[in-house]
Amino acid sequence: MYPFIRLAKEMFINRNASALPITGTHVSYHRCWPQDIDVFMEMNNGRILTILDLGRMALGQRAGLLGTLKANGWGLTVAGNSVRYRKRIRPFVRFKLVSRAVGWDARFMYLEQSIWIDGECAVQALFRAAVTDKNGIVEPGRIIEAMDQDKTSPALPTWVQNWIDADATRPWPPQVGQD
Asked: 104-148, pLDDT tens digit by residue?
């Protein structure tokens, strides 16, 4: 089940936090609870993705994205991601979640998130997100402009551009399972 109570807590805690620019960094703190663990007594990889949602939502709230989405009747969706899991997150461990937008192109916004335990990175993820309306994807420049921010994206880091380029070579739809 989606952690709606955790989401409400994050939104409440950050309701009066200082505003961030679209490329600002949001930091939050969380704990691995028993409902987050799998049979190996560590946070389930799917739950990690859900916890990362909480960081993106709070970042969106502080940057003014959520208000802009609501005002324009737009939606938000994840259009792809790449995750590195490097350290187990054990029950009851407290961790830091760092979330930031690294830039955008003509269709997508790119966000980097990481989870830290005692100064060591446990998880790092790159997300491709899209804002949508009834006609499909809304151009990120239009969204940023509606947020009264500079619509010019910072240069995407090389590793992000390499991921975008590599992902563009993946066949779609996949060939597996087709007759």
From this structure: 999 999 999 999 999 999 999 999 999 999 999 999 999 999 999
Helix 65-72 with 45-63: angle, nearest 10 deg? 80
CA–CA separation, 104 and 12 (whole Å): 28
Which residues make Cβ contacts (< 8 Å) with residue 122, sequence separation at least 6? Answer: 85, 86, 87, 88, 89, 95, 115, 116
User: What's the predicted TM-score (pTM) here?
Assistant: 0.93
CA 174 from centroid of its chain's CA atoms: 25
Query: CATH classification of 4-168 is 3.10.129.10, yes or no?
Result: yes
Q: Which amino acid is at 12?
A: F
> E-strand spans in the chain?
25-31, 75-85, 94-104, 109-117, 120-133, 136-138
